Amino acid sequence: MINHPIEPIYNKESKILILGSFPSVKSRETCFFYGHPQNRFWKVLAAVFGGATPETIEEKKAFLLENKVAVWDVIAACDIEGSADQSIRNVIANDIAPILAESAVEKIYVNGGAAKKLYDRYIYPKVGREARVLPSTSPANAAWSLERLIDVWKNIAED
With a threshold of 0.90, does the pTM exceed it? Predict the structure, then answer.
């Protein structure tokens, strides 16, 4: 069983919550979200919100809070092989209720189909709030170009 090593990023002004499934090996090593250099999350968000791609953990935290974006994952602990979502077993879900209670979150998005399935199974029954699925920014989702990802993800800033 691997425990999620990263605290959620949010504050009372956060309006958008983006949930992944569970941190990749690289993200667990760096102790921050979307730590794999090939993951396009930070490039996509920078394009969506019209800014430079944040590089350091401090820049990433500031970028998220500045753009009123909260980030966390669906899973608090699980068995997983490497970074493969399809290998996830024995899920213990995160409790997102405190984020919803302590912030201004209006919209919940999930980064990829695996996160959506996990959200619908473990979190939706507890909070009763729908999450919209966005195409995964993972390098494993090679069918989606950076441009296509940006085109779909830009809706989070427009909603």
Answer: yes
Beta bridge partners of 3: 77
What CATH number should be reported for the domain holding residue 143? 3.40.470.10
User: Using CA atoms, how far apart are residues 137 and 114, in angstroms rounded to an integer?
Assistant: 12
* pLDDT tens-digit readout, 56-105: 999 999 999 999 999 999 999 999 887 777 888 999 999 999 999 999 99
Q: What is the DSSP letter of 127?
A: H
* Range(s) of the domain holding residue 145: 2-158
Write the DSSP string, 2-48.
EE-----B--TT--EEEEESS--HHHHHHTSTT-STT--HHHHHHHH
Contact present, 143 and 43 (Cβ < 8 Å): no
Contact 46, 97 (CB under 8 A): no
pLDDT (0 to 100) of residue 65: 98
